[in-house]
Design brief:
Protein name: Alpha/beta hydrolase fold protein
Pfam families: Abhydrolase_1
Shape: globular
Helix content: 40-55%
Strand content: 15-25%
GO molecular function, one term: hydrolase activity
Order of helices and strands: HEEEHHEHEHEHHHHEHEHH
Keywords: Hydrolase, Signal
CATH architecture: 3-Layer(aba) Sandwich
Largest sheet: 8 strands, mixed
Number of helices: 12
CATH topology: Rossmann fold
Radius of gyration: 17 Å
Number of domains: 1
Strand order of the largest sheet: 1-2-4-3-5-6-7-8
Signal peptide: 1-25
CATH class: Alpha Beta
Length: 267
């Protein structure tokens, strides 16, 4: 049953990739800004707060993936909220950047040295957030990772990635889905590089991983893999029954609650 659900989800995703245009980076009505490396982002909330929350979307996606979080009144009051268009998406530079390290470094320009910084990453945004924390461990004060991908063995190219990578299908995909598949093809190698780094540097950073037990896109085993590498007193895994990969939108209150807990610790 699980395999059947995964196949149906994949077929639906491929169909969407053929007919749906990329999300409009202006659709939320916020002013879009850019970093020196050409990454677009929006900034809302309390700019005078001593905490900055950086939201990192998955693959494909844009800053609009976090529209409900950006509009949350309590989050807006407690922190400055920034949601990015990762390199390759939205209004950022549209060249494919499959390197997790390079994606993290680009977002790292938005880490504020004068504030506490909390990272929230969904799907591929999870390992990118963790890579950023490894790059700047002294400036990151907490992570919330939602349905992340970490295990190289679980993230090898799937049959549908191979099909999408073929010339016959690839030409018909929208830019976002071409870019997404371009990220998926070398993902196992990228995660192998990430897993080889010294995660003990994150020992003192609070990290919460949230994963749905019925996730057929990023297997829950990804989070179990990460927890074995983290294994710190300030690290926790919340596995949610009957939730899938889209828990970011289907159970936003749970994720907001975890973000607020980190905010309360850093205020």
């Amino acid at each position: 049953m699980r395999k059947k659900t995964a196949v149906l989800t994949t077929i639906a995703s491929v169909f969407i990739g053929l007919v749906i245009k990329p999300s409009n980076a202006d659709s939320l009505g916020y002013d879009v800004k850019r970093t020196e490396k050409g990454m677009a982002y929006v900034s809302v909330g309390n700019r005078n707060a001593n905490v900055r929350v950086l939201f990192i979307h998955g693959s494909p996606g844009s800053h609009t993936a976090y529209k409900h979080y950006l509009a949350d009144p309590l989050l807006q009051e407690q922190a400055e909220l920034i949601s990015v268009d990762r390199l390759g998406y939205g209004q950022s530079s549209l060249n494919l950047v499959s390197s997790i390290e390079q994606q993290a470094a680009a977002i790292g320009e938005l880490v504020d040295k004068e504030k506490a910084n909390i990272l929230v990453g969904h799907s591929l945004g999870g390992p990118i957030a963790l890579a950023l924390a490894l790059q700047q461990p002294n400036l990151i004060d907490g992570l919330v990772l939602v349905a992340p991908a970490f295990d190289p063995q679980l993230e090898k190219p799937k049959w549908y990635n191979l099909i999408a990578d073929s010339l016959l299908v690839n030409w018909a995909l929208t830019h976002d889905w071409k870019t997404s598949n371009g990220e998926m093809m070398p993902l196992a190698q990228e995660l192998t590089l990430l897993s080889g780094k010294d995660w003990s540097r994150l020992e003192n950073i609070p990290i919460t991983i949230i994963h749905g037990s019925e996730d057929t896109i990023a297997d829950p085993g990804n989070s179990e893999f990460a927890m074995k590498r983290l294994n710190g007193e300030r690290h926790q895994l919340i596995e949610v029954e009957k939730e899938g990969h889209f828990i970011l939108w289907q159970n936003a209150p749970l994720i907001v609650q975890q973000i607020q807990q980190l905010l309360n610790q850093t205020r």
